[in-house]
Amino acid sequence: MRTTLVVGSAAEQFLITVAGHRILLRLSNQQQDLTRLAADPPPVPDVPGYRITQWDNEGPASLVESFAEVLNSVRDAPGADLQIAESSWDVAKVRTWERESTVGRQRLMVTAAVAEGSGEVVGATVCTLDEQSPTRASQHDTAVLPAHRGVGLGYAIKHRQAMLLCEQAGLETVSTTVNVDNHPMMAVNRRLGYRTAAERVLVQVDA
Questions:
Q1: Which of 21, 92, 96, 144: CA 20 to 30 A from 35?
Q2: pTM for the full model?
Q3: What is the full DSSP assignment across 89-117?
Q4: What are the angstrom distances between the C-alpha of 54 and each of 59, 94, 114, 173?
Q5: Would you tell me the crossing angle of helices 64-72 and 91-101 to the nearest 10 degrees?
Q6: Strands across the sheet with 50-56, in order?
């Protein structure tokens, strides 16, 4: 049996007394205060050889195939195999995901890094906004292809996304969840002003 529990809750206190329990993941539920960010923006990144672009709801036809490859690398993150079902992204799956993610009054925002040499997406981060919750946005997957890691693209794309979100009227906070063992992403989020609001653990109890 696997379940996710809030750290410090009665449920966690009970399960950690059960024989055969194992903590598989520690997750940080984080929030970014956009008002504070707009008043004191973090340093603008400089990553030569790449351009940062953004689109809403449906990606450009020229970029969607390489964007799918970036989504295939999301499971490289520490512990991602425990949170994300194995799947293979291609153009058709991206288009289906885009349609499903924009049902009703939800808006899908993608910020991507494009390599100037190839013209292909090599990193991306995804955010959703919902008219029914106009003050809050949700930040989802962020990934960079292995060959382009270590140069600051994760920070660059999340910085651009954060600055764009600051421009959205009425939007106050962005929420996300990060595995605490994903040290690069934890560091990026700290630079961008994310703060831990709560912590959760993924617990497995063996029969």
A1: 144
A2: 0.86
A3: --HHHHHHHHHHHTSTTEEEEEEEEEETT
A4: 9, 16, 10, 20
A5: 90
A6: 2-6, 194-205, 21-33, 173-179, 136-144, 121-130, 106-115, 50-56
Q: Which two tokens stand for residue 51?
A: 């351009």
Q: What is the pLDDT along the chain (207 residues), one digit of tens a residue?
A: 888 888 888 888 888 788 888 888 899 999 999 999 999 998 888 899 999 999 999 999 999 999 999 999 887 766 555 555 567 899 999 999 999 988 887 899 999 999 998 999 999 999 999 888 889 999 999 999 999 999 999 999 999 999 999 998 899 999 999 999 999 999 999 999 999 999 998 888 887
Strand, helix or coil for residue 64: helix
CA distance 167 to 14: 44
**How many CB atoms sit inside 10 A of residue 157's CB?**
28
Could you tell me the sign of the dihedral formed by the alpha carbons of 27, 56, 162, 77, in that order? Answer: positive
Structure tokens at 182: 């994903």
Q: Among candidates 174, 187, 160, which has minimal Cα distance to 44?
A: 160
